[in-house]
Amino acid sequence: MKKILAVDDHEDILNIIRAKLSKNNFDIQTLSDSTAVLHRIEEFQPDLVILDIMMPKITGFEICAAIRKSNINPQPIIVFLTAKDMDFTRNKAAEVGADGFIPKPFSPQELLENVQKLLVNR
Amino acid sequence: MLLDSIFAARDRRIEKKIRREIEVMLSHELKTPLTSILGYSEILMDNLDGSDRENYLHASQINRKSKELVRFIDNMITVSVLEFNPRVYYQSMIDLNAPLLDAVNEFRRGLTPVKKVDLSMELEPNVHVMANERLLRKCIMELLLNACQYTAEGSTPFISISLSTSSDYAVLAIKDKGIGIPASMKERVGDRFFRVENADTAHTSGLGLGLFLVKRTMELFSGTFHLESRKEQGTQVSLFLPLCSDRAGTL
What is the pTM of this model? Predict the structure, then answer.
């Protein structure tokens, strides 16, 4: 069973992601505290991390860059979620090492399909 | 006197800029609660699948209406950005077939409010233009949704799409056999917030931003937009975009 960690400061978004992915046979953990992501990744060792970009204290971009610079091995696939779907946001996401980008609002089905596509060769 | 009018013009510009910034900020803030409404309604539909038809229909209605709201908000943001900071739409050489096929796939995937659509396509390959792919996909999507929406209630929408080249231009035409636009209203089509409103369009909803967005996008890419329509016979919207000189090049 593939493991997924979802990080967002909005509980509703986490509930929706959890409901859709757990129903489709993923082992899913969620986190609303953006400062605890690295520690949780080391513990849970997810195959894929879903990261909101605009979060208080530390942004998704900063977390992604920190994961890519860390010794975490194997590195997880990282997908960004954001309400600001602009070209510069997409470019920045690629720069910091993200593998995917899902604009908000998203349909849970689209999220599931994106996750399945990204995990196909894992 | 002259100084007063200069200051007044400056104040109007600042006021307009602030209003647009508030529009964009509000629209972004609306996206998070909308994600929740859209997501929960879809989860509810998954859980009710077949077991409780009445509640399934209620949940799907919430889902459909929230998708309409998403479209309006996206259009508002895009229009504001196009007016005040179009540079954020990066341009590169693209094959017009790519955003066109993406939009058609997205359209077919279920954004259409009716179940059956008769859609045909005739596409010339390798039509390269300088543009922003995501913005063009959005414009094409708006045109497809309009073609579908402005079909007489109860009829199957008929949409034909053609992509061709003519001298220095790429020509993308989307034609429908819908209710058409009365001659008296054609001049105003493409104005911000203008919608054809009469008994034939009473069943439709919208803010009148779709064609305005298309028009602005064409201006941004040095293209033009042409509309032909006859009441009760249909409408054809054609987009003309300058072809890239290096048509064989790759990005």
Answer: 0.78
